[in-house]
Amino acid sequence: EVTSTFTQGLPKAELHVHIEGTLEPDLKLKLAQRNHVDIGQTTIEDVQKTYQYDDLASFLAVYYPAMNVLQTEQDFYDLAFAYLQRAAANHVRHVEIFFDPQAHTSRGIAFATVINGLYRATVDARALNIDARLIMCFLRDFSKESARQTLAEALPYKEKFIGIGLDSDEHNNPPLKFARQYEDAAAAGLHLTAHCDIDQKDSIEHIRQALEMMDVERLDHGTNIVEDPDLVDFAVRHQIGLTSCPLSNSFVSPEMKGQEVLALLEKGVKVSINSDDPAYFGGYIGDNYYALADQFALTKAQVVQLARNSFETSWISEDQKRLYL
Ligand code: HPA
Ligand code: ZN
Q1: pLDDT digits (tens, 9 = 90+) for 230-246
Q2: What is the domain-level CATH number for residue 302?
Q3: Which domain holds residue 183?
Q4: Is 276 annotated as a binding residue?
Q5: Is 171 marked as a binding-site residue?
Q6: pLDDT of 9-65, one tens digit each?
Q7: Does the CB atom of residue 195 touch ligand 1 within 6 A?
Q8: 168 alpha carbon to ligand 1 midpoint, in Å?
Q9: DSSP letters spanning 195-260
């Protein structure tokens, strides 16, 4: 039987966590005070009461405004280091952390402020026995021109992040909108992933574009792929990683997509379990493994396979992978 002690203690990699989604109510209040930002609430309970959403759009409407409390390089450091301490307690050995520069540059925070604060936390995470890397995401509901500008601003810092991703509101914002930025990022030696959120309009078409036309190495969420056997074959043949997030799913849909995860495991797709936005969706990575294992009666062997998949589809070197596998 799989216990929460087992899921917490299992060595794992986390491949789908948004640093802005790790902003806990207590840190939000502390930063609001420190930076004299009025967020409309003054107690943890009142902040918690604003955490109401039932789909991607209503979640994002709570999520983005909260970021106003992040102002200085130290704020970004504190945010990331707090997450990394929790990740260490969850026996995360390697993490690839998403950040959304446009959510900050669009309100006047310099790109350098964001990346330097986050990067410094990843360096200090070595003392926690975690290898931490950064993935820069484009906001897909912003223009291509904004993405182009963001990539141009980011490339001078390319030693500080390992790949690019695509997040925010997927509705009418297909991966191909950013084909040019993905090409340019790949040419600069960066890894590629993209969100294909669950149960979106055009989910399958978006997955097809990302896999067949843009050469992404992973799909974030992406579990709607089970509806299309040819794409499932493609994912198996190309060892595409799918980063599923059970607790996040249960907020934006009636279910955590356990049947889909089990079906994909069975077919040999490299699906992993992740926390997405743990401060908003009620749990860190160990809780996500446990919720899924508990509700869908996973065996220990299945849970171990999910953790193996997380290392296998991570972007660490093959030499480093051998240490974990
Ligand atoms: N999907 C899209 N945008 C996001 C997500 C997500 O799961 N989490 C944070 N931003
Ligand atoms: Zn996400």
Answers
A1: 999 999 999 999 999 99
A2: 3.20.20.140
A3: 4-314
A4: yes
A5: no
A6: 999 999 999 999 999 999 999 999 999 999 999 999 999 999 999 999 999 999 999
A7: yes
A8: 5
A9: EE-TT-TTHHHHHHIIIIIT--SEEEE-GGGGG-HHHHHHHHHTT-EEEE-HHHHHHHSSS--HHH
Does ligand 1 come within 6 angstroms of the Cβ of 197?
yes
Any domain includes 158: yes
Sign of the Cα torsion 217, 222, 226, 228 reads: negative
Q: Is there a domain that residue 324 lies in?
A: no
Place of tokens 């030693």: 159
Beta bridge partners, 219, equal 194, 242
The answer to whether 184 is annotated as binding is no
Q: Is the CB of 278 under 6 A from ligand 1?
A: no
For residue 275, how far is its CA from the centre of ligand 2 (angstroms)?
8
Please name which ligand lies nearest the alpha carbon of 103: 1
Cβ contact 44:29 at 8 Å: yes
Encode 291-303 in three state secondary structure. HHHHHCCCCHHHH
Give how many domains the chain has, as a whole number.
1
No. of helices (H) and no. of strands (E), the chain:
16, 8
Q: How far apart are CA 112 and CA 153, in angstroms?
A: 9
In a domain, 56, yes or no: yes
Prediction pTM value: 0.98
- Nearest by Cα to 53 from 196, 204, 202, 169: 169
Contact yes or no for 133/125 (Cβ under 8 A): no
Evaluate whether residue 323 is within a structural domain: no
